[in-house]
Amino acid sequence: MLLRMPGTTVGARMPHRTLQASIDDVVNAATDIDWAISIRDATGDALAGRNADRSMEIASVGKLLILVEVARQCDAGMLSGGELLARDPTLLIADSGLWQHLRIDELSVHDLCILVASVSDNVATNVLVKRIGLQRVRELGASLGLADTAVLDYVRHHRGPGDPATFSTGSASELSSLMSRISAKELVSQAVSVTVGDWLATGVDLSMVASAFGLDPLSHATSSGDFFLRNKTGSDPGIRADVGTVGHNGFRFSYAVIANWDTSDRSATGAALSGMSAMGKALREAIEHTVP
């Protein structure tokens, strides 16, 4: 069943076959890319997918677990959102983020979470991990029943022989389930789910699956009659990942679309983004053509 979002009535049957056909088309059109895809309805039931249980490299999507653990610690009274954390020179890293360009050396836990959710800030991520503890993030994953989804390390420029091979890994099935539970306000607690959802609403990367929904990357926290979106993306050489929940007219899907490929294939990035956009269009079409 496809359910309306809270406050609306129960809807009609989901277009399972259309979504699965779209997934198959995407995978078959780019055979040099390893795909993992999972789509769930509003109840959290799996609707369609491909390689959904495969462990994949997910780049910054792993930061979602860090946000959940920060929210959990704040809700439990172990941490305050107003606590100021200093920019640690030993944790500085370039690439994504804004804090490296700002002159302020201390920001609150809440503000750091906004930076992570909105622009995937690497410096903010590392400072938060140092404060809450990487082991706590791992324990959170275990408590949530995650077998394939984990944050393995800090964000690093270079990885030596003694470092984990990648920042984070995950399966499409587990990640789509996480997003579904956040949307249903059932991940850890209602308060934690709402907090994480509010942070994710600030995300500006709509370049992947979310490119199909016609939203303003800088202003889509409220649906205002348009599509409702909460998502987190990840991008590294050979990796693109987008996990989220999209809704419209009372209906919603949660999704995870992950692409991994050999970095020597220079055409793969474009093919991955094209496939992810196609998945977004399929989701949009499925929502718009679902009749109550």
TrEMBL record:
Its name, as the record gives it, is: Serine hydrolase
Residue span(s) of domain Beta-lactamase class A catalytic: 37-258
Concerning InterPro entries, the annotation shows:
Beta-lactam/transpept-like, Beta-lactam_cat, Beta-lactam_class-A
Return the Gene3D superfamilies for the record: DD-peptidase/beta-lactamase superfamily (3.40.710.10)
Keywords from the named record: Hydrolase
Q: Any stretches that span the bilayer, and where are they? A: none
Against Pfam families, the record matches this protein to:
Beta-lactamase2
Q: Which organism is it from?
A: Mycobacterium cookii
Q: Name one GO biological process term.
A: response to antibiotic
Q: Name one GO molecular function term.
A: beta-lactamase activity
Top-level taxon of the source organism = Bacteria
